[in-house]
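> @MW can you paste both from yesterday?
MW: sure, first one:
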Amino acid sequence: MRRALFGHTLKPHSRRHSNLAPDLDAHVPSMFLTPYTVLPSGLDSLDPLGFLRPYTALSDALLPQFTTLTASPACHGFLCWAVGFLRQRRASGRDFTRGMRDLEILWGALCIKGSRPEGVLNIVRLSRLPRTGLTLKVARRETYGLYLRPGYGVRGHYAGPSVIWGFLSADQRLTDAGKALADAWDFRLTAGKGRSSGLPTFTLLAERWMDNLPVLDDPALSEDVCRRWSVSAGEPNNNERQVWKRAVSRAIDAWPAGEGLWTSPPSDELKKMYFSDRFHFFPALLQHYDEQNASGRFDELLRRLDRCLAFEQFAALTQFAFEWEYLRRERAGGNAPVSPHPDLFSELRLSAEDAAKAVRAAGLDWNMPERLRACKNYTQQVSAIIAMHVEHQKRKLAQPFLDEHDVLLADRLPNSPAPRLADDLADADHVALRSRVMNAYPRTWFFNNVWRWLDYLGESRGHIH
């Protein structure tokens, strides 16, 4: 039917990509030297439908201490240690920012020597550093380009979340909890402060590094030792685990609605579904907590999870319709809406009804679900989606991708799954439509961050609060 309507099938791009949620490798803890993700299009391509604000509100109602850039508790430990180290040296302003980058390079070089550089965004530049004779003076050479944006890095990623966790004050000073975490992280190779193991603290390494000595040439820093400092392979000592356990308990007290996420995590099989089958994941997660809710302790958690499900279904179907119509018009021409599936209108309307209820229950000021709920057919839905896209882009002073009549900007969605998805839906029923669209446009709800943190704490079966 689609081929008959406009003469050819849209060609899917060779690389499937979603900037909405991490891929399967994203559960590996990562160290980052820059706090932003470079996308192929400009800022006007980010969040073209205005989903970010309601999504953030729903996400923060469960786990406000996580962002898409906070991937590892080890980075919080490094940040707290680095803040304390630089404060002791009375660094401020530019010196503080530059000093933070100096220390990040040392940590990154240790990760590389330990053969575990996974997740280091500046790995290409760091890999150019010499393996022997590396000093701070060498690392600062312009040819390596490691100081082009010194204001960004672990501090840019983790400072805000560290405030929420209670490790930093609003003015970027260490709290008592932050001092404890910094101290524990510094001594992670020595099994605790005052315990002799013959291995260096990070402070000792950093002092020598800042004195322009070739720290990594030390025979004591074997590959195995360096690997214990790495973000993805390093193990916290017991002191660090205890600091984090107290931090998680404080978080539960502060946001009790999310307690079950920490104290009663789902099975490993269900965790895998979060990455591979979002359509079935949410119902299974809701069932997991409903079965433990005889006393009503998870009532609020269940309500909030249900709102996340309603939002994700609605956002996925709306995003699919928007991307399909943009790409169809860009590649095939014409401005008359052509639905990629006969059930898309009804599924989008039903999801809009559920999302409208969720929005009201959450007290959000967001009318997109109500506007789409009132549409009588697919053509009206597309008109409403485009109108809301134009309004949103203009509010953020960005050019719309298209309006009711024309495509205004080309090549805005080079990695969209919509063309391939539309082909896959040729013989699908309405259930398969919703399932495949949800799996193509997942959102990041940070449940995997909770599981990663629990593994780090040695409490994979649940935190004892």
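MW: second:
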Amino acid sequence: MSDWDDPSVPLEPRKIRHDALLVVALLIFIGTQFVSDRPIGFVNRPIVVDVAPLPPKADRDRYATYISAGSYMIPKLKRPNALNAARAVSRLLSGGVEPSYARPAVRLGYSAREIDAFGMPFFAYKEAGYVLYFDDWESDDPYMMASPVGDEGLGVLRKELGVDIGRGWIFPFWAYFWGWVPLLLGGAWGWLQYRRRERRRAALGII
């Protein structure tokens, strides 16, 4: 038995440790609202997860044309946050020079959908799979352009490039499920509070 449930440990010290769970959950939740650019409301949105850059010898213009010709538009659905504000202030202090996205890099990505709420991710699953896309997430354009490659097309792409691009890549699922952490911590705190009240009632002889 852990000392969290050990009746020999006084209730008040245990309550402090129980409350630490709630404090951590609130810190995660509040901090997320400042640094996350995910939407606040419940949304199921398309995303592109970066896999790898094309090698330097790749014909960038050829693959850019492929993206432009067969692309679909992916809404970024970004919201303003503290990090965006800090970057804007930094650009203002440096003379207001905006970064150039006239020729964004072409990269291999993975098309998926992400379920968000309160600025936090809770689930992600495959949509189009492997894609080529323009890496211009930080630009003010509300959309990203991508073109599906698929598993078969990825094999063709590897032959064209002469490298096993994307080989061994694993979808970073942990980056799209951490929204559950503050909920689980809050739930654990609620359960421990219930257990604490029940023990107090039992100690007082209340049925």
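> thanks! DSSP finds five helices and five strands in the chain.
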